[in-house]
Design goal:
By secondary structure, chain A is mainly alpha-helical. At the A-B interface, helix 12, strand 3, helix 13, helix 15 and helix 16 of A face helix 12, strand 3, helix 13, helix 15 and helix 16 of B. Chains A, B: Belongs to the SLC41A transporter family.
Chain lengths: 457, 457
């Protein structure tokens, strides 16, 4: 979500005073106080206030004024529908038409087809056309987050004529700090920053001060890739083009911040087995719905492990102490697996991994597995000896922990890399496999060895 | 890391051609090709190329030109030291003095005190003074990431005089898209965006078009809080002030993107028990060092669990099948705990949680725990009956899973909230506690019940 990247002011506001004004139907007092606020703060108030007061606000604020509120990041996507239903349909349509196109599209994407159509038919042709043009782009592509409100200048213009164009376009454009230069056929040929423009002499030809090889992305590019590029190249806006280099729109830095943020909490929630956790749940049931699938999968896989242990009941009934260390071993394997998994998944997300060879990476992880496994094994042998003066059982546990940490670390790296290659999202799919694999291997080694050396126990 | 927020061009470059030029000591060919690249791409080449070639680059590039490369995000903080050591000391000092102050400080923070001093003494007084001024700010505060290269104008100036100031300052300033207005005592009194400036008539008084209540942060503010504010208020730059509202510096949006990125991978890595994983390890040993502490802590805590199970050896030796389900139960408790933990930690980080009452949150999680617990319990009873026609053992496992999921979900929420209140980072500290707590509780219930009903087994 983005508002024009102008600098707006004020962070503290008087909630009571605003409510008071609404209660007493004092429109002037309300508008004087409210419109002074930063759109983000207006959104906070708008969101919090009781329904009946919000309904009054719809009469006190113009669709255009409300549009600014809807463009802040405070209003969550799943709230759009509800808020829009509170409004008079034409009022809502007007408001959407006043939003920046990319944000308007975000809003409409949350609604049912029928609603979208009714809003589009109610708003002026021009806005409707702009919105329709963006609506058909696939989610998570550059096209889906770009805006069409940007400034282009013909490459044969001078600095002064460019400044004139800027001054005229400024009010509508989402950013004017980069000006994109196009040829007669609207193909992207260069870019000039406003910084360069105001330094340059006004008779200078744009073509002489513009950068000719512009960083740009295809409209079909993945939005996370765009975000990474803008972060790396430190751009405030990225031009989006088609195969013929025609400029279709721009993506501004504030949209990119949101993308990076989502991407991060996304990987994070998947590691924890909570799918799309980024929006915070408002009730238990929906939270449970999100978490159950994962828990149930792991239960089924856990039964495999139980099944396996069951094969060794004889050994266990002889030396019940063996059972005591099963969770310890499985747990440790799980932990080291998760660590390796986290490093790999994060590395894939931030593309650090692509910079180096997969083989080198696996070898390094193998080394890490050996070291951590060895240390933990020796450590646990010591612990068990101190605690129970049991040396042989200690050795069994140590051996199991050593091997399972080693395997867990490698699989925790290999499996996500493999899935990434297979175009499966490694973050979501890797977890259960690795956990189960670790459990199975560690238990086979542990109870297997135990059964062999049962005589010495 | 940030370069001037100008729009630079070109993303693809000819690595071989550049190397060739260095080998043949063709300085002109090298500079012609190299300086056309975006600083980020220059950094990629600089980083990759062999040491001896890089040494040649130090002769072919001016300290100022190299400074631009060092300001890209491609150069990792832990690489600064090594690269600087390759350079002639005065050359290095010069280079640092040409960097934006905030980046120069980032570099120096990676070095030993003695090195810092030697560099500071070698560079010109002015830069040294600017850097020293920033060096003493605590890490992770606004002061530590702000730059002092920003543009201020007196509040009594006109648009045209402001533009003149801008044109002169533009080359040195990190951003000129916001101009901060100050009074005679350099106190922040307002802000004007370049957008407003170029639209306004040149005789207009700044005081009439500036926003008076500027969003700003104290120099001691936490950097994550600053990042959140800039994201929410959609700012390209944030002024940093002292208690008397004197403007000390600005923080630009690109620095904030890095902060948000680090913060995210930070929480993520802590959830997985890999401290500060954000930089990707280049060798096994350092990776092992990072992961071992966590593994060892969990081993010790795991011994508690083992100790506990050991109390029930008698029961287990009678019905060894009981042991088969211990990992299943502990695992499920662990998983649901991690889910709750992830939601809470992420909620705290994104401040979603602050918007609502802690009590409501805990109640909701309790509800989630009840639902998920119940479903999983019934599910597992079914599984065990199908698999082993064991009904009573199934009930025991089910009961244990129900209670432990319930407890795990609540503790997974309560503990991080409590730690947050106690000003301990919930992401890093919560994990082991919750895991152990879950194991202990689930096992007591499971084996406790089993011992009670041993007759029926």
């Amino acid at each position: 979500m983005n508002v024009k990247d102008d600098y707006k002011d004020d962070i503290i506001f008087n909630e009571e005073k605003l409510k008071e004004a609404l209660f007493t139907h004092d429109i002037r007092a309300f508008r004087n106080e409210y419109l002074l606020l930063h759109p983000y703060d207006r959104a906070i108030f708008y969101e919090k206030v009781e329904l009946e007061l919000r309904k009054i606000m719809y009469h006190y604020l113009s669709p255009k004024e409300l549009a600014e509120i809807f463009e802040t990041s405070e209003i969550d996507e799943h709230e759009y529908k509800q808020f829009l239903q509170e409004m008079d349909t034409t009022y809502a349509a007007d408001m959407i038409s006043y939003m920046f196109v990319d944000n308007a599209v975000d809003v409409l994407n949350e609604l049912d087809k029928s609603q979208v159509v009714s809003y589009l038919t109610l708003m002026n042709k021009e806005s409707a056309a702009e919105i329709k043009a963006l609506l058909h782009y696939e989610e998570y592509t550059a096209g889906s987050i770009m805006t069409t409100e940007f400034v282009t200048i013909p490459q044969n213009s001078t600095v002064s004529s460019a400044m004139t164009i800027l001054r005229n376009e400024a009010p509508g454009a989402e950013t004017i700090y980069y000006v994109f230069v196009v040829d007669y056929d609207n193909r992207l040929t260069g870019v000039v920053s406003l910084r360069d423009l105001i330094i340059a002499h006004e008779d200078t030809l744009i073509s002489t001060i513009m950068s000719e090889r512009v960083v740009n992305v295809l409209v079909s590019e993945d939005q996370e890739e765009v975000a990474r590029m803008m972060k790396d190249y430190n751009l405030l806006a990225m031009p989006v083009v088609d195969f013929q280099q025609h400029i279709l729109g721009i993506i501004t830095v504030d949209d990119i911040i949101d993308v990076l943020d989502e991407e991060a909490s996304d990987d994070y929630s998947k590691l924890a087995g909570v799918s799309n956790m980024d929006t915070f749940d408002k009730n238990s049931l929906s939270a449970a719905k999100k978490r159950l699938p994962w828990l149930l999968i792991l239960l089924v896989l856990g039964m495999l492990t139980a099944n396996l242990i069951d094969l060794f009941t004889e050994t266990i009934s002889k030396v019940a102490l063996l059972a005591a260390f099963i969770p310890l071993i499985a747990g440790t394997a799980g932990n080291s697996g998760t660590q390796a998994l986290a490093v790999a998944v994060r590395g894939i997300a931030t593309r650090d991994i692509e910079d180096e060879s997969k083989v080198k990476l696996l070898l390094r992880e193998a080394g890490t597995g050996l070291i951590t496994g060895l240390v933990c094994a020796l450590f646990v042998v010591g612990l068990i000896y101190i605690w129970k003066q049991e040396f042989i059982i200690g050795l069994l546990v140590g051996a199991a922990i050593f091997v399972s940490i080693f395997v867990a670390t490698i699989s925790g790296t290999f499996i996500p890399l493999f899935m990434h290659r297979m175009k499966v999202d490694p973050a979501v799919a890797s977890g259960p496999f690795i956990t189960t694999l670790n459990d199975v291997i560690s238990i086979i080694i542990y109870l297997g060895l135990a059964t062999l050396f049962i005589g010495d126990l």
